[in-house]
């Protein structure tokens, strides 16, 4: 048995087991850790434990049984003989499942330690905040603004960001409204004045009902805040001590209440000709300094996420600052930091397909951290929501693409019938769609290069915090949404991406990526010219 290659598999990976056995490897059976082992995994679908029965899961079980078939009991016999051998290769769904006593110096394991620096929402948020100190790269060009609500500095920065975004959004809403009808002159019509008033009332004294117009002072306040912010942005390289535009003498509570009425309750806005020009010029100048000005939209939607959860657990879209802060506090025991929550700007201006939100699951493998060596998988898949996209309805079925979330929802009757019933597309299907809408080159020229840049920047930002062991490797799944301009925006990176197929597309792709990963990390060692399937080396330090 000494010459034999011994492997161990922990978790739902029948394909890995079958491919290794086909290479003549012998399995040492893993100690059974049961349900607890499943609980820890970063992104596993946990299909057998949690999924409600479906045709897919029955078929999948049948396939897994076939994968594990051992008609003559040969594999079982070999495993019995190898029961005392230390494995050379271990594939597990989480690092903590591995008994260190089973590890040899030359054992290959499919995980690194301390990868939570980029595979948890909190970790990625912190790492990318530090990116500009490590690389000449701006995370705002590929990662929606993100804050950890448990740290005071981040919480204050978020409150300031929310207020500034509200001010910019108000200018956008005012321009949009002015575009729908003739611009008002300086004179405020009588109908807009309060009962018996001969002057313009200030918004804070306005008792107007939802749907009735607010006064130009609200736009004036927004213009003033945005002007000051632009001044800060233009001088931030010279003087770090410029006072924050949010500390100016403006009643922010009142401003936000009025903004909510305009953005969410249908209150109208009046705009003078002069204000209209000012709004246009200011937004244009801000766009040169703020890479997310376009994608952030005008409704100030943010997404609140528990910092270390996966599979969409606990994630909620919100639009009101006080409600977000309250939720983050109320969901936390006194002994636990609020920092378990992160809040991230929602990409409001995103590309939808047939009126439906989707995201992209993109795989990549790291085979070394020093030098950092990264392989990008050239196939990926799209995950659709089960209800049409709307920023006026923020329920999970419309906004969270995770398979583990969407499996609980039936497709709604108002969903476009062209959305695939299993809510999954391959990247090939997406490329065909892009060609149909006149964006044939977008995949290779914009989307793929953008995803590669985002992944590499995320890895570099966390590189010094990862504990790596030579010879190990890890397969990750990055999730992206796509902006209206076809730019990809990184949302998160999952260690242990699910390999439990939920569709015909993922059944094929998950099998392929497992096969190609083994070629990359095992076969290539003996034969550097062997095929590595759809993997492409995109970075070696």
UniProtKB/TrEMBL annotation:
<dbReference type="Pfam" id="PF03133">
    <property type="entry name" value="TTL"/>
</dbReference>
<dbReference type="GO" id="GO:0015630">
    <property type="term" value="C:microtubule cytoskeleton"/>
</dbReference>
<dbReference type="GO" id="GO:0005524">
    <property type="term" value="F:ATP binding"/>
</dbReference>
<keyword id="KW-0067">ATP-binding</keyword>
<keyword id="KW-0969">Cilium</keyword>
<dbReference type="GO" id="GO:0003341">
    <property type="term" value="P:cilium movement"/>
</dbReference>
<feature type="region of interest" description="Disordered">
    <location>
        <begin position="29"/>
        <end position="71"/>
    </location>
</feature>
<keyword id="KW-0547">Nucleotide-binding</keyword>
<protein>
    <submittedName>
        <fullName>TTLL3 monoglycylase</fullName>
    </submittedName>
</protein>
<feature type="region of interest" description="Disordered">
    <location>
        <begin position="181"/>
        <end position="211"/>
    </location>
</feature>
<dbReference type="InterPro" id="IPR051437">
    <property type="entry name" value="TTLL_monoglycylase"/>
</dbReference>
<keyword id="KW-0436">Ligase</keyword>
<keyword id="KW-0206">Cytoskeleton</keyword>
<dbReference type="InterPro" id="IPR004344">
    <property type="entry name" value="TTL/TTLL_fam"/>
</dbReference>
<keyword id="KW-0963">Cytoplasm</keyword>
<keyword id="KW-0282">Flagellum</keyword>
<dbReference type="GO" id="GO:0005930">
    <property type="term" value="C:axoneme"/>
</dbReference>
<keyword id="KW-0966">Cell projection</keyword>
<dbReference type="GO" id="GO:0060271">
    <property type="term" value="P:cilium assembly"/>
</dbReference>
<dbReference type="GO" id="GO:0070736">
    <property type="term" value="F:protein-glycine ligase activity, initiating"/>
</dbReference>
<feature type="compositionally biased region" description="Basic and acidic residues">
    <location>
        <begin position="29"/>
        <end position="46"/>
    </location>
</feature>
